[in-house]
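Sample intake sheet
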Amino acid sequence: MRIVWIIAAIVLLAYLVVIMPVLRQNMRQSGLLKVLYAHRGLFDNESDAPENSMKAFVKAAELGFGIETDVQLSSDGVAVLFHDFTLARVARDKDNQPVSGKVHDYTFEQLESFHLLNSSEKIPTFQSFLDMVNGRVPLIIELKIENSDKTLKVCETADQMLRKYKGLYCIESFNPRGVQWFKLNHAEVIRGQLSDDFWKEDPSHKSLLMLACGNLYFNFLTKPDFIAYDVKYPDNLSRGLCRNLYRNIAVCWTVKSEEQFKEAKNHFDAYIFDSFVPKDGPRVH
């Protein structure tokens, strides 16, 4: 019986070491927690300001909301803002038909020929977005990385641009390799591990890799400054320990109503929202 308790204690200790995030408090001191973040801009996909469009970003910045957006690369290495790896849900061709393929299948010149949903908005470049915001509001930059070295290139490209940017920002990614890239190459940048309870969210994700990602087992490699987790799953054990034991910042995505926002305040420290405009404005209360 004693051996069993020793083994259990070792397993518990190993688990706590594996999920341990960075213990520095940079994010608390940075000012990133002062505002609410508009998910892909202040968008409405039925309007002329769809998600990740320049109009949606301008609306958010003018009202003082922080902005969360998604960066990936065209085939010729231009950093653009688009959420899905595939284009079909949001991008339309000149005949207003969904565009097939992935973002990285097209050059930027080709991507420029498409428009976003039923608007005249185009897929923006990351640089044009940074120039427009110009430090007015804080940014959460999600790096879109599939499981290849080619898509990991987005980290280096984005970092080169962000080093010249004077505003307040942090980066995040679902892919731990992207978070680790910043830990190894630009450790001063505030970095976050995006995650979800993948097994509950999508039964097709029931793999050991998704189990590990959902329970933050790569934190020992990435040492994130914050965990950004699906607001629907506040009770994930690893997420809760990161916040309550290690005092790591807890960010939630995506809050979709005032009621959900009120509940999220019991479990999280920073908030990404869409589908409504918080009634109290851009500041966290």
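Comment: The mean pLDDT is 96. The CA atoms of residues 50 and 149 lie 30 Å apart.
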